[in-house]
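Is this the right way to post structure tokens for a design question? Let me know if I should format differently. Anyway, here goes:
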């Protein structure tokens, strides 16, 4: 996974800057990093460091003031199905569509998998992958728990078969127990699919549990502080001394003082 070979660079961010006019804010300045094919790449940092802005620029939802984002060597100009995004918002599903039709809809819009029958089968396959069996296919979002809604959102994103899966604090609004379950499921999906994932979180422990690489951003303006290869060998357990040592390194880098 991400062995450092230039040919395996999936995503390249160079000189990325974002300035907002009203109110005037320099959200990002000179942000540079590379993501290799198959990386589980976590971005952490304090509030206001530009984590979500970085992801939105990669997704093509916003345009950079300076710099560029290259996906497989091609500059990102606009949103596309090659960069599917899962948001923190638990209301990102269409409330009037069933679970199954929420996953089928973007496949239809992007003319994927040919026939409607094939799209339904693919949608069902990915819903099973995230742990939702057929009894939930006809459920509407208001009938689902927060964790189930995020499972549907992840299935919908995976079904597009994106080159990069973008996840913006996807478990931030979910209770701790469900969050742990979803972390385990996403890790399992990543191991099975070898999908390149960019995952934004403010939670240091979550970044260490999931990430093969961890990018740390600082504030005023948002900028790269350091990029780490995760030194904790899987399966990563919070009780591992290496886990605690790396957690402390990240904690101190983010500006916290030793107690």
């Amino acid at each position: 996974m991400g062995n450092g070979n230039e040919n395996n660079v999936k995503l390249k961010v160079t000189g990325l800057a974002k300035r907002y006019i009203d109110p005037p804010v320099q959200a990002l300045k000179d942000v540079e990093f590379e993501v290799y094919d198959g990386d589980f790449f976590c971005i952490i940092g304090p509030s206001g460091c530009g984590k979500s802005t970085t992801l939105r620029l990669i997704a093509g939802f916003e345009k950079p003031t300076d710099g560029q984002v290259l996906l497989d060597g091609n500059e990102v100009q606009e949103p596309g199905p090659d960069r599917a995004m899962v948001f923190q918002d638990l209301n990102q599903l269409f409330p009037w569509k069933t679970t199954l039709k929420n996953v089928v809809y973007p496949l239809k819009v992007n003319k994927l998998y040919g026939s409607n029958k094939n799209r339904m089968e693919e949608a069902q396959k990915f819903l099973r992958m995230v742990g939702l069996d057929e009894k939930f296919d006809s459920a509407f979002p208001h009938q689902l728990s927060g964790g189930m809604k995020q499972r549907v959102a992840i299935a919908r994103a995976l079904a597009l078969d994106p080159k990069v899966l973008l996840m913006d604090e996807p478990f931030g609004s979910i209770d701790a127990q469900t969050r742990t379950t979803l972390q385990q499921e996403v890790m399992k999906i990543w191991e099975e699919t070898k999908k390149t994932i960019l995952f934004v979180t403010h939670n240091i422990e979550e970044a260490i549990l999931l990430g093969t690489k961890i990018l740390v951003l600082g504030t005023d303006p948002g900028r790269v502080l350091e990029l780490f290869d995760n030194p904790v060998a899987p399966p990563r357990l919070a009780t591992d001394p290496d886990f605690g040592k790396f957690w402390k390194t990240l904690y101190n880098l983010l500006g916290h003082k030793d107690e």
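Format looks fine. Someone answered above. Worth noting: The radius of gyration is 18 Å. The CA atoms of residues 232 and 243 lie 6 Å apart.
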